[in-house]
Design a protein that fits this description.
Number of domains: 1
Helix content: 10-25%
Distance between the termini: 26 Å
Radius of gyration: 19 Å
Organism: Neopipo cinnamomea
Shape: elongated
Strand order of the largest sheet: 1-2-9-8-7
Strand content: 25-35%
Number of helices: 2
Protein name: IPIL1 protein
Length: 143
């Protein structure tokens, strides 16, 4: 969605997170109440991949090349997705990618403080301001 707020255009984008191969996301119940739109406990569960393809090793059954995803160790606390870690990781990724874009010298990028989303403020020629808010979500019922 987008909206004009005071002197800037605000875009809100939902970014659906997908688990890496061999994993799935499970929404946890809060005291018997299921509120997926506000759910903060998203468990990362390892899945057996033996029967899916022969060239993909299984995370659950012992093997010589059994390894976990380095991305999960960065984005999780224990067995749960950590939205603050995800926001920080995406903010750093956007900062480093922005420096490599040829347009960076025409627009100024500021990453605004946020612990549960990625908020970006772009200021362009003639002081045009665009604010992009990336909100992270998982799709219920996805593998």
């Amino acid at each position: 969605s987008w909206n004009v707020f005071e002197d800037r255009i605000v875009y809100q984008l939902v970014v659906f997170l997908q688990p890496p191969p061999g994993y799935s996301f499970r929404l946890e119940l809060h005291g018997g109440t299921h509120l997926p739109e506000r759910c903060c406990n998203i468990r990362v569960v390892q899945e057996c991949t033996c029967s899916r393809t022969e060239d993909m090793f299984c995370f659950l059954h012992p093997s010589d090349n059994n390894q976990s995803s380095p991305l999960l160790s960065t984005l999780c606390t224990g067995s749960y997705l950590d939205v603050e870690e995800i926001a920080c990781w995406v903010q750093n990724l956007v900062r480093s990618a922005w420096e490599r874009l040829p347009q960076w010298h025409n627009w100024q990028l500021r990453v605004l403080p946020s612990s549960h989303s990625c908020r970006l403020l772009l200021t362009g020629p003639c002081q045009v301001q665009l604010c992009a808010v990336l909100v992270f979500a998982v799709q219920q019922g996805s593998p």
